[in-house]
Specification:
The structure is a single chain. By secondary structure, this protein is α+β, with helices and mostly antiparallel strands. The chain has a single domain, classed as Peptide Deformylase (Alpha-Beta Complex). Helix content is about 15%, strand content about 35%. The chain has 1 helix and 5 strands; from the N terminus they run αβββββ. It has a 3-stranded antiparallel beta sheet with strand order 1-2-3, with helices on one face. Strand 2 and strand 3 form a beta hairpin. It is globular and about 35 Å long.
Length: about 110
């Protein structure tokens, strides 16, 4: 499997809702995403960040896992924390962001 090229901001695919995909496609894409994530550095990567309009993302914090067709079901409290981004030219820069903690479910 090959590594994917990171799509840089601004790019429409980064703000376009992604499409559901099947498990086999997601598994193959997850392998490529993990390989790209390892090469580029970072904690997570979604398919649209490499130009694929699919609802798949990978996370590698402690134990690597991937999400297939995640749906936000509930927004909870807001938190403020530092976050980096692979889509900007200033990859070494961290941003203070405010986001809501969310509850996800997977739909196949």
């Amino acid at each position: 499997m090959e590594t994917k090229k990171i799509v840089m901001y601004p790019n429409d695919i980064l703000t376009t809702p992604t499409k559901k995909t099947d498990l086999k496609t997601a598994q193959n894409l997850a392998i490529e995403l993990f390989k790209t994530l390892k090469e580029e550095g970072g904690l997570g990567l979604s398919a649209n960040q490499v130009g694929e309009n699919k609802s798949v993302c990978v996370v590698n914090v402690t134990n690597p896992f991937f999400l297939l067709n995640p749906v936000i079901t509930k927004k909870q409290k807001e938190i403020i924390y530092n976050e980096g981004c692979l889509q900007t030219m200033l990859r070494e820069q961290w941003y203070l962001v405010q986001k809501q903690i969310t509850k996800l479910i997977m739909i196949y």
